[in-house]
Amino acid sequence: MIDYLNPFEYEAANKFKFDQILEFYIEDFNYSRFVQSRRNVFLVGERGTGKTMTLLFNSLPVQLKKAENAGTSVSLELICIYVPCNTPLTHKTEYALMDEFQGKVISEHFLVISILFAVADTLALVPHLLDGADIGAIQRELDYILGIKLPTGADLFEALKLAIQKENREAQTAINAKKLQAFYENARSFSTGVLPLLSTIRRIPKLQDSHFVIMLDDAHDLNESQVRTLNSWIAYRDNSLFSFKIATTKVGRPPFLTATGGAILEGHDFTLVDMELPYQNKYSNFGKLAREIVQKRLDKIGVSKVKPDQFFPTSSEFEQDLRACEERVKREAEARLPGATAKQIGDYVYKRARAAYFRERSARANRPPYSGFDTLVHISTGVIRNLLEPCYWMYDKVVSENRAKGLQESRVVEIPASIQTEIILERSRKKWDWIRDGFDKSVDGCSRVDADHIFRLFDNLAILFRERLLHHESEPRAIAFTISGSEFSEHPKLMHLLQIARKAQILYTYTSSAKDSGRREVYYVPNRILWPDRGLDPHGQHARVSIKARDLWAAASDNRKIPFDPADKNEATEYQEEGYLFHG
Amino acid sequence: MANSEVIVTVASWEPRFWLGFEKLVTAHRPSEVFMYFYAEYAGISEENREKIRVFCRESQITLHENKLSFSSPIESWRTLYITVSEGHMSNRSILVDITTMPRETIWILFDLFDPLKNRIRWVYNMPERYNTEWLSRDPDKPRFVPKMGGITTLGFPTTLLVLSGFDIERTRQMIVFYEPELILLGVQSGSQFENVSKNVERHSREFGKDPIVSLFEVDAYSRDQGLGVITAKINEHIASSNLVMASLGPKPSAVALYRIHKEYPQTGLAYAPSKEFNPNYSSGLGDCTCGEL
Fold first, then answer.
1. pLDDT tens across A259-279, in order?
2. DSSP code, position B196
């Protein structure tokens, strides 16, 4: 566990102490209450979107801690058991040396044994759980049905943990043997491991009506056979005893195929929750979530009366200039649209005022000031870790400067706009440096050629968005795109690049309905931290640019500029019910 | 006069492979050579392999040439297993030339040789210099070495031991992949090959302030390849965490990690393959370091 140093710590949630999870977790605006249901649920999102935090917050140990802090007791109606998949056990490779059947059997065994251990480990923490239980009968049943002889002298669940560890060691030792076909003969399956254990422990009076929520985190780390096995369990539609909550990345998400070649279906077998929230304005769910997350962190450092907007103030120079632009654009709207309604004038100002600010600055060499809590939320592109990361560095910078001046850390009551700008520009530049120089060294499956192509693609997108910001008539701040003309022959190569970019989290995708036909369409949103380095406005607007696949590929492969027409009307705006969009 | 010694090597296009091999064979006069080569680099290693074929033929040394593949570690393990088990190596002294041998192959071979109870020696030839622009790129996912992934204890946190090299992104990739609770980051000491600016300073700057990183110095070119320092570092974590170990630094450090794995079979050895190496990876033949298992 890490020591608490900086309120904007953005380490992986599984490194947090229980108290930190309780302090930092926000229950609202992110669909996380789906975890507290009896349905099978997939939580899908890239690193840093809060999947692990959501699972851990709901896990019984954290809920026990929450109840203890509140002086209450926890309900055992729904018992959430956290099972991490990114463990050395999951990454073992010996199954691939076996024949296909044995490989499947041993893969299922390790998944089952991980769940069994997590069940025992979780229940061992519940105080007085065994009050009134016939321990002898339970032990006999475990012996008879599971074939587990429990060591004597320990609490039931501690003894069960020891027995499971022993089986786990024996299986690994057996398959590590230096033989071509080393196998473990006593492998367990779901029906000879998890089901009988859950049925047996329901004999404990306090658990007789319990529903067990098995929460598998980082399921993308499971091997193919384990994924198919897991999907077969999900297809088991009786959810009275157990259900699964599965957290996985979008890119490389395990397929929804079962061990027998069938498929599990969204809506029918499971509910899918997208943890990446596509809108970042202050009225959107993510905007509200971000505000609560940061407020909680501010509470932690004793500045609870300071709101996020005060802690991260917008540059006064910027505000002044922007207000002047808004006034001027408003007058322009009134002159150009005689008789327009207040809403029409508002729309006009929303679309053009910020662009006008950037247009007027374009002649100057220096970058505009990037500051203000709203800007940080937009820069996050809807990913919590992206929100906290610059805050972390900003806080660190202020603490360092305070210490250099002999001041105390507790004196941090705001991050000056100048430091916000400095850190945002630094993080933005580093991101570009990484794309240019580090991609092929750090992103799985990215060759030097791919890295060059991706850099050129994003470079040309930046040029296009810059041209739009400075010259487009109606949608100057569009910084998302859709792809048209997918019948293009190099389309698979383009998709390969976009897949790498998504894996590296410099690109996010959402599906949304197209304006014209209502069909679902994939929106591509580059990570907005890229834009400050290029003098762009990370706030963007609710519009996307439709770009031909052919042009994107030419930009990537031949460094050709993406065509730009300042009067192009081929942009559809996309508005969701969750956001208030015209806040001009 | 040839003796019954066996030399095991992995062919490379680097000049030090052929130059080092020639020196070794002249000094040891083995009766057999097991030369593996990687399918992905078969083209550029062919010239050196042909030199070895001619040399062995003229010197009446039996040469066994076998293909491995970075992209098929399981098939490579099978090939190594079969060639070792059918290679009649019992009761013979084995000299493993680890100069251009991937760490994964070093560990598998050491592991397969272990039950033979033979005298196993290893040798490593440094180059005169490394390419200063880049050495490797396009990394594949890190993976456990078959049969050497350790024995995981359920519920334990993961501790990652990385012996760093010149490429900071490889270190970062390991950390991102295994998401350890604690990182023991061993940085090679000394000023060879611009080590201070390219390795020590960069890793210290990048990871030194991270509260979950414990930085320490290690010398893979020392008599024990850094074994004592590494063992002292892992001692307090070995009984309470699942230890994953990776060597990205000087090749002899792989020997130290193998020894630790043998002593503590619960530890796992991880390897991060690259899909592309610089055709001008190194030049010349430098100093030689060697030891016995």
1. 777 788 887 888 888 887 666
2. I
Neighbours of A360 (CB within 10 A): 14
Residue of A87, A95, A437 to mutate, testing the B interface (most B Cβ within 10 Å of its Cβ): A87
pTM as predicted: 0.84
Is the same domain home to A296 and A438? yes
Residues A116 and A75 in one domain: yes
Buried b (16+ CB within 10 A) or exposed e, A548-561: ebbbbbbbbbeeee
Separation of alpha carbons A13 and B212, rounded Å: 14
Report CB contact under 8 Å: B173, A442: yes
Of A91, A92, A117, the CB nearest to B155: A117
Q: Is residue A581 part of a domain?
A: no
Report DSSP letters for A263-304, one per residue: B--BTTTBEEEE-S-S--STTSHHHHHHHHHHHHHHHHTT-T
Question: Measured between CB atoms, which of A91, A172, A178 is closest to B111?
Answer: A178
pLDDT of A518 reads 60
ipTM value for the complex: 0.92
Total number of domains in chain A: 2
Q: Could you tell me if A255 and A308 lie in one domain? A: no
Any chain A CB within 8 A of the CB of B43? no
* Closest-approach residue (CA) in chain A for B268: A88
Residue A270 lies in a domain: yes
**CA proximity to A83, closest of A200, A201, A222:** A222
C-alpha distance from residue B69 to each of B18, B102, B276 (Å): 21, 11, 13
A260 vs A238: CA distance, rounded Å: 18
If asked whether residues A289 and A270 sit together in one domain, one would say no
Q: Which of A274, A299, A318 is the last residue of a domain?
A: A274
What is d(CA A339, CA A347) in angstroms, rounded to the nearest whole number?
A: 14
A135 Cβ under 8 Å from any chain B Cβ: no
Residues 6+ apart with CB under 8 A from A191: none
SS3 per-residue string spanning A170-190: HHHHHHCCCCCCCCCCCCCCC
User: Residue A256 belongs to a domain with what CATH number?
Assistant: 3.40.50
**Domain containing A212: what range?**
16-24+33-274
- Examine the domain organization and report whether A370 and A230 are in the same domain: no
A254 and A395: one domain? no
Q: Does A5 touch chain B (CB under 8 A)?
A: yes
The pLDDT > 70 percentage for chain A reads: 91
| Beta bridge partners of residue B96, listed in sequence order | B8, B122
Flag whether A5 is in a domain: no
Q: What is the pLDDT along chain B (293 residues), one digit of tens a residue?
A: 445 689 999 999 999 999 999 999 999 899 999 999 999 999 999 999 999 999 999 999 999 999 999 999 999 999 999 999 988 888 889 999 999 999 999 999 999 999 988 889 999 999 888 877 777 777 778 999 999 999 999 999 999 999 988 778 888 889 989 999 999 999 988 766 676 776 777 778 888 778 889 999 999 888 999 999 999 999 999 999 999 999 998 899 999 999 999 999 999 999 988 877 778 878 888 889 999 98
Q: Is A444 on the interface with B (CB under 8 A)?
A: yes
Same domain, A506 and A470: yes
Domains and CATH numbers, chain B: 6-130+281-292 (3.40.50.11700), 141-272 (3.40.50)
Residues A373 and A504 in one domain: yes
CA nearest to A87, candidates A112, A109, A114: A114
Distance from CA of B178 to the nearest CA of A (A): 7
Q: Does A2 fall in a domain?
A: no
pLDDT at A572 over 50: no
- For residue A167, the chain B residues in CB contact (below 8 A) are none
User: Which residue, among A318, A340, A315, has the nearest Cα to A330 in the 3D structure?
Assistant: A340
Query: What backbone torsions phi and psi does residue B132 show, to the nearest 5 degrees?
Result: -90, -10
CA B32 – CA B5 distance, rounded (Å): 7
Final residue in a domain of this structure, among A255, A274, A293: A274
